[in-house]
Design goal:
Helix content is 35%, strand content 19%. It is of the alpha/beta class.
């Protein structure tokens, strides 16, 4: 079984920002056991910025971007060196992957990254992945490492994704309410937005909203996703064995998605233009019980220039983003075909603007 494990900053660090080596050693023991059992693992490790805070002073006067670049640069060295020392005790070699969202912007880059991880796995090397905050800027950053972990799990077609934070899961109310309980099972497509808290952690960048979005998107692609408390002893082993006694939220895997659709699902930040669709097209596309392509007849207008093969954001007439897909046309050719239909009444019986196989609807 292939498993991606994301460990958040608040789990890997103590309250003063130093790395919690005892907890890291516990994770390493559990991952080493997975290796012995033949499982392949990707470790998405936060903690670089948090670790950097404990190593330098005076950064508070810097702007936010410069702070992040400074702290992640020095903190990443400490983080990866600590992981190396710990995994050396289990005779496990690790390989560091520092990535930016731009590394996944094209199908070619995406496949290059996939090949890199596959090569590490084939040589029994544990990939340790983190965002390269030293070069990332706001527009090109992952929402947080939750999003990165979902992309890695989907890219490598893993069977499970563990998102470990300092919370027990998704609660059916305010976690501080003694009557609130963890939602243990969430079916594919089921919304839990009404329960999600918007607060963020003190060291990490994300919150429960991004965790839920990542979990639901990843589960919809055919991967079982678990949100659990990383401070719980033996949590990785428990989740791997699907121990129903453990406290966690399980997003049940939906139907398995083809590799190309998984890439498109995480590529909404790289679209070249917008395509506005009419109500009829929107309703058909958003009906997840049917496989539908976006036809030229459903297009209201385009916003921006694009070429055949570019990714487009699909927006309904209310201004809501409903999906993303790869265009079969240049804008000029698509617009000419649409004009012919509207002005001359000519039926254009050719390929759709976006075929279902290259379409992802939120």
């Amino acid at each position: 079984m292939d498993i991606t494990i994301k460990i958040g900053s608040n789990v890997l660090t103590t309250t003063n920002g130093t790395l919690d080596k005892k907890r890291m050693e516990s994770f390493a023991r559990q991952i080493a056991q997975l290796h012995e059992e033949g499982h392949r693992v990707i470790l998405v490790s936060s903690g670089a910025v948090a670790a950097g805070r404990s190593m330098i002073k005076g950064y508070e006067q810097m702007d936010t971007v410069s702070q992040r670049q400074l702290l992640s640069s020095i903190g990443q060295v400490k983080l990866i060196d600590t992981w190396k020392q710990i995994f050396d005790k289990h005779n496990i070699s690790i390989g560091q992957l520092l990535v930016t969202k731009q590394d996944f912007s094209t199908r070619e880059h995406y496949l290059n990254m996939k090949n890199c991880v596959q090569s590490l796995w084939e040589n029994r090397v544990l990939p340790v992945v983190n965002e390269n905050d030293t070069v990332s800027v706001t527009a090109l950053m992952f929402t947080d490492n939750d999003e990165l972990s979902g992309l890695m799990a989907s890219m490598m077609d893993c069977q499970k994704l563990f998102i470990l934070s300092n919370i027990d899961g998704i609660f059916n109310g305010n976690p501080n309410d003694p009557d609130a309980e963890v939602i243990r099972e969430i079916k594919s497509g089921e919304s839990v937005a009404q329960y999600v808290q918007t607060s963020k952690s003190s060291f990490g960048r994300g919150g429960m909203i991004t965790k839920c979005r990542t979990a639901q998107k990843t589960a919809d692609s055919g991967i079982d996703v678990y949100i659990a408390n990383g401070t719980t002893e033996g949590i990785i082993t428990s989740l791997t064995n699907d121990d129903h006694q453990s406290t966690r939220t399980h997003f049940q895997a939906g139907e398995h998605s083809p590799a190309i659709k998984k890439w498109i699902a995480y590529s909404d930040g790289f679209t070249k233009a917008n395509v506005i669709v009419n109500e009829g097209a929107s309703q058909v596309l958003c009906d997840h019980t049917k496989a539908a392509s976006l036809l030229l007849a459903g297009v209201v207008r385009f916003e921006g220039e694009f070429k055949s093969g570019d990714l487009l954001t699909i927006i309904n007439e209310n201004g809501d983003k409903i999906g993303v897909g790869r265009s079969n046309y240049d804008r000029d050719k698509a617009q000419k075909a649409i004009d012919a239909m509207h002005t001359l009444g000519v039926k254009v019986a050719i390929k759709p603007l976006i075929h279902y196989d290259y379409l992802y609807i939120y």
